[in-house]
Amino acid sequence: MSWRTLRRGIYPFFGTAIIVALWQAYTGIFAVSRIVLPSPAEIMLASLARYDLLLRETWPTFLESVCGFALAMLIGVPLAVCVANSRPLNLTLYPILVATQSVPKVAIAPIILVWFGLGIQSKLAIAFLVAFFPIVVDTATGLQSTPSGLIELARALRASPFQVFTKVQFPAALPFIFSGAKVAVTLAVIGAVIGEFVGSVSGLGNLLLSANSQLDTALAWAALVWLSILGIALFALVALAERLLMPWTRAGHG
Amino acid sequence: MEQAQADSSDQPEQTAGASGRFVDIHQEFLRPGQAPLAAINSISFELNAGTLVTLLGPSGCGKTTFLRIAAGLVRATSGIVQINGKDVTEPQPDFGIAFQQSNLMPWRTVLRNVLFPMEIRHENGRAALQRATELLALVGLQGFEGSYPVELSGGMQQRVALCRALIHRPKLLLMDEPFGALDELTRMEMQDLLLDMRAKTGATLLFVTHSISEAIYLSDVVVVFSRRPAVIADYIEVKLPYPRTPEMRYRVEFTELEHRAGRALGITR
Fold it and tell me: What is the ipTM of this complex?
C-alpha cells in the first residue's frame, strides 16, 4: 500500500527530474545565453530571490481564477439543469452556448477590458467565460445520462419530480460535474492570464510580460513556473473536493 | 407508532397480502411507419392474496411489459388491472418492486439504499432505520450497512435490492427477473431466501422469469406466456408444499411440472 503510494509519487518526480537535468546540462554545455533560455537553477534562484514579488503577484491571478471559476459554477450548473430538463430551453440555449464557445476568448478580451477596465473585474469576466462552457456541457450530459433503471425505481416509489432531481438525477451527475469542474478550473487560470496579457496592472501574467520586456528571462520563467503551480494547486483542490464529496468512488478500489 | 408496536411482536413482518385480478389485458406498441406491434393479446387471471405467481415465458414475449402494467408504470392499451379492489393506473404506495439490475445507487451506502423508499415517503425515522437493519440481518448482510454497492457481489446487491423492496411493508411485491444476472448457485440460494422472506412477510408476489425450474420451485401458480403476442399458454398450479427444499427439485412431481411447462412453451413434446 505505502509502496504503491510512494511509487505513484516517484514516477512523476523522476520524469520531471530527467527533463530538468537535461535542460540544465544543455544550457551548461552549449553555454546558452540566459536571456534566451535560463537554466533551471537560474529560474529557481530567481524564484527564491524574488519570492515576495512573485507571491504578491500570484494573489490577484489566484483571485481572478478562483472567482471566475466559482462564478462559472454558480451560473453554469443551474443553467445546465435548465438545459437538461427542458426541451425548449435546450433548443433555445444550446446554439447560443456553442456560439459563445466558438468565439476566441483572446479576441474578445480587449472588448471586455473596455467594459470592465484594467482591474480584477475584466480578468474575472474572461476567466468566467473560459471556465463556463465545460461546466455547462459536462453537467448537462451528466444530468441527461441518469441510469433509466434508477428513474424507473423512483417512479415506482411515487417520487415527486423534485425528489427525482435531488435524490437521483443530481447525485448521479456528480462525477460528470466534477470532471467538467477540473477542466474548468485550469482553464480559468488561463483565462485570467489572457486578461492580464491584454491589459492589467498586476498579476503573474502582467509580471511575465514586464519581466520579458526587461529581458529578465529568468524572472519571466519563474512567473511561468508559479503560474503552473497555481493551476496544479487549484486542480488538486477540486480533485480533493471530489474525493471528499464522492467517497463511493474510492470504495472498492482500496 | 404502528411500527413500534409491530416490532415488539414475534412476527414483526406479517402483512395481509394483496389480492387482485387482471381482465383481458391488451398491449400494443405504436411504431412509426409500421403497423402497431401487438405485445400482449388478452391475458386474464386472478391473483390470490398471499400467493406467489410467476409469469414464465420466452424472452421478448411481453411478460416484463405485463409486470410493468401490473406495477402501474405502464398503462395497458385495454383491460383492467385491479389490486385490492382498486384500478391500477399508476404506481401504488403498497407496492414493492425489484428489477433484474439491482438498481442500487452507487453514491448511497447499503443502509441508505434500503432506506430510500422511506425517504421518498418522508417516513425516514428511527423505526425505519431499525427495520432496515433487521431486514439486512435477515438476508445475511449485517455488518455491510456502511458499505457501498461497488464493494458487494451481484448476489449481495440483489439482497440489498430485496430489502429495499420490502422496507415499506408492501402488500404486493413485483419482481422482474431479479436473479437473472446471477450465477446458478447464487440463484438457488436467493430463491430460498426469497421464499423465506415471503413466508415472513405474507406479501403477494408477482414474479417474472424465463427459467422453468425457478418458476416451478418458487410458485403457487405459474402463468405460462406464449410467444408474442402473448396469450396464456398454460396455467399451472404447483401443489408442492412449502417450505420448498432443494431436494424437491428431483421429485417426480417437480420434473413432471417442468415437463408440462416445457410443453406449454413449445420446447418439449
Answer: 0.86
